[in-house]
Amino acid sequence: MKRKLLPSLLALALLLSGCATSKIYAKDKVDGAYFAVPNGWKKIEQTALAKREAESKVAGAADRLSLVTWQEAYYQKGKLEPADIYSLKAPASPLVYARVRNLSAGEAQSVSYNSLRDIILPLTDWITKSTDPSKFNLLDDYEVADKHVHGIRSIYTFKGADGVNQTIDQTAVVSDDRTKIFVLLVRAKSEEFTSNKKVLTKIADSFTINGGK
Length: 213
Prior knowledge:
Radius of gyration: 16 Å
Helix content: 25-40%
Distance between the termini: 30 Å
Number of helices: 9
Structural class: alpha+beta
């Protein structure tokens, strides 16, 4: 099923209308990507995220970090650290993480809807092999498109090594010229996601790439 992202001007108008004082707007000024979270959510700065990511020993991590042009994270309550953003364990607080990076030449040639869907976890393989629903359950999966980008939005539950179910609302899109990838992850323990579903879905829905500075 194909659905469109909000048109840029309409999305911006909605974001800037009436309830502006109750929102925090996170924006990548270079590529025009933005999303909104409720006022009071706490921010983890790009510098802190990059410092943590630089400690990764995973193959290719340093190369990918060098291509990042913007990333920010916000969380609802408590105290999260950059390590919590990158961990696959269920987060102690609902969180949202956005990332924009350039694609390498090899990635630009091979990027596909499956690779976008699999940006964090091997979802395509799990879907194909009908992975045990107690560990993974696909709630929704559909194409998204706008004037400048196209990709996949996947919503699913996942139980990691910590044994705690979490729900992830994941949008991964690539620019039409295949030079950049834009990712938004909204995550929470499944119980918290259900109880905060309206708020968390609204955050995910607000993700917009208008392609302008």
